[in-house]
Amino acid sequence: MARQSAVTLKELAQALELSPSTVSRVLNDPSGIDSRWASPETNQKIYDLATELGYVKNQYAASLRTAKSLLIGVVVPRLQDYVLATMYEGIDEAALEHGYAAVVANSLDQPATHDLRVRKFLDRRIDGLILGDTPFDGATLKSLDKEKVPFVLVNRRSPGHLSVTCNDQMGGRLVGEHFAEFGSKKIFLLAGDHRMSTSIDRTTGFIEALAEQGIHLPVSHIAYGGFDTSSGEKATRDLLDAHGIPEAIFAVNDFAAIGALGVLRERGLKVPEDVKVVGYNDTPLASGVGLTSVHSPMHEIGRRGFDLLLKNIQGEECESVQLDTNLVIRSTSR
């Protein structure tokens, strides 16, 4: 007769003539090689019988014993954004490897929505948070600090808080040095959202690199807005109408850069002959249209974000992580 219910830990222990605590410790060892609880031969017998009988760990019961839910909450501005979606894939992948589940929610970069999403996660007893929607001033983090909730920032940073980002200031510098090599003087900067570290750091590095080469970027040639295609289109139209044709355009996001390319095309301007264009993040779409872009290790940022959060949850000493970038040169700036 077919078995009607899943085998229990106690039944496994009885069949092997071992204590339930020994079987539990062996099966809960994530490496599968710890010999502190039993010999390698006994370990193998436990794994073999558990597989044969179809033993499945009861995560709910485990969470009650350990006071952990094995859930983490992830808040991003928009999951439809390729950059954040790729980072979430890295988070989810790393979480699964450690027995956790990652649940994601959108904040639309609205503080009130962010607070609501975070509160919903906390009500569900999540073990920690990964936040990809934090402004540079960290205003949305005050309640988490007060409640001592473990959390890590990804993609964006805020001083005094754990984060995993790429070196955005260096990324901006790489673009400034690239334009300086061509002797470009009249340059437009599509700077994104001025509240976010991604905008602040990329812009700062870019302007500093130009200044070191004796190139001045007027404030009037900098347009702030969003990180999407429509924002890039609007910023490019406004700058062209106000200041004429530049020699080069740097957008701090690939999608804004693609918006700029569309406007240049509709104005009859050739890229790179008339105007050179560079974006940021090196998304697959950038490769598809030949856009020069600063490479951001998006998937790795997500994985490292979970790793850092897990250390935080476990009470280990933690430091922020900053990953390297490089400039991928393609046809829009050759």
From TrEMBL:
InterPro entries: HTH_LacI (IPR000843), Lambda_DNA-bd_dom_sf (IPR010982), Peripla_BP/Lac1_sug-bd_dom (IPR001761), Peripla_BP_I (IPR028082). Keywords: DNA-binding, Transcription, Transcription regulation. It comes from the Bacteria. The keyword tRNA processing does not apply. It holds the Pfam family Peripla_BP_1. The keyword Oxidoreductase does not apply. Residues 7-66 form the HTH lacI-type domain. GO terms for molecular function: DNA-binding transcription factor activity; transcription cis-regulatory region binding. PANTHER family: HTH-TYPE TRANSCRIPTIONAL REGULATOR GALS, LACI-RELATED TRANSCRIPTIONAL REPRESSOR. This is LacI family DNA-binding transcriptional regulator.
